[in-house]
Amino acid sequence: MKTEMISEFLEKYGHEPKQNYFTPGRVNLIGEHIDYNGGLVMPCAVTLGTWLSIAPNNDKVIRFKSLNFPEEREFDLQPSYTKTGPEWYNYPLGVFHEILKKHQIPTGLDLLFHGNIPIGSGLSSSASIEVAMAYALNDYFNLGYEKIEIPLLAQKVENEFIGVNCGIMDQFAVAFGETDKAIVLNCDTLKYKIVDCSLGDYSLAIINTNKPRKLAESKYNERVAECQTALKQLNQEITLHNLCELNADKFALHSHLITDPTVLKRATHVIRENDRVNLAAKALNEGNLTEFGRLMYASHQSLKELYEVTGAELDAVVEFCSAYAHVIGARMTGAGFGGCAIALLKKGREEDFAKKLNDFYVARIGYPAAIYISEIGNGASAI
Question: Which CATH architecture has domain 2-196?
C-alpha cells in the first residue's frame, strides 16, 4: 500500500511524499458502552486502517485530499479552526486546531489519506484518522508528545471539535494496539495491561451490517446522559466518580435509588458488562476460547435487552452466528445502532460462513452484509 500511496500522492500533488504513516481501526472484543463510565474495555487493533502520506509546502496552507472521498479542501495555516460541516476532513482539521494551541507548525502541508475501514461501521474510522494525523504531526515535526498524549488529544478533538461524547477507548486502541494482543484498559485511570489473544484455530470475522451508524446523529449521547442520571442518583447515598466503581453486589444494595426503569436498565448493563471484561481476560489467559465466546454472546444479549443499542441488523447477524456450528462467539462491536458485529469463526469456513450468513441476512433484512476476515494488528506507526 505504501507504493500505491506514493504513486497517488505524486499524481495528485506533483511531488512525492516525505513520510508515510498507518493507523489501524479497532474492534472492541468485549466491554461495550462502559468506556465513558470509567470501566474496563478490551479492544484490539485490526489490519484495516488509515494510510496517510505527507509533504511540506511553501504556500502556508494545509491541503486535504483523500482516495475515498471526492471532497478536497485547502485551509490557510492559522492559529485555530472551526468545524465546517460533516465532511471527512473535519477530523484531521480538528487535530490541527488542537495542536496549534500549543505548537507552531513551520510549513504548510500536503496531505493524502486513504482508508479501507468501512465508513460508519463502528470500526473507529474517525479515531483512526484523528490518531493518524496527530501521530504524523508529532513525528514529522518532533513536537514532543508522549505516546499516551496522542489518544488523549484525539479524544478531545472528537469531544470538543466534532461534538461526540465518546470515551478514550477507540483512540487508545488504535494508538497502542499490538499484534495478537488485546488491551484491557481502565478508562478511568488509563492503566492498561496487554493480554495474549492468540485465536488459534479461529479467525476474527468482522460483519458489516451495511447500516451506517452516524454516531453524532444517533442516540449515543442520550445513553451517556442516562448513565450520568444513574450516577447522580446513586450519589445520594454513596460517593462515586463513575458507575464502574461499583461491583454487582454493591450495585444491588443501592440500585433502588435509580427511579427510572429505563435508566436502571442502562446502569445494570454497565455494571455487568464491566464484570464480563474481567472474566474474558481470565478466559484468554487460560486459553479458553469457548468461555470467551460465551461471554461475547452474553454481552450482545445485554446490549440488546438492557442498553437497547443493537437493532434488527446486528441481531440478525448474531442470531445466525449462534446457530452456525463453526462460530463459538459473536456480538455487536462499537456503539451499535448499525455498524459491525464480530465473530470467532473456525479457520477454513470463511467462504461457507459468508455465503450462508448473507443468504440468511438478505432474507431477513433485504440487502447483503459485508464480511471481512482480519488479524489482530499493530497500532499507529510510520511506514
Answer: 2-Layer Sandwich (3.30)
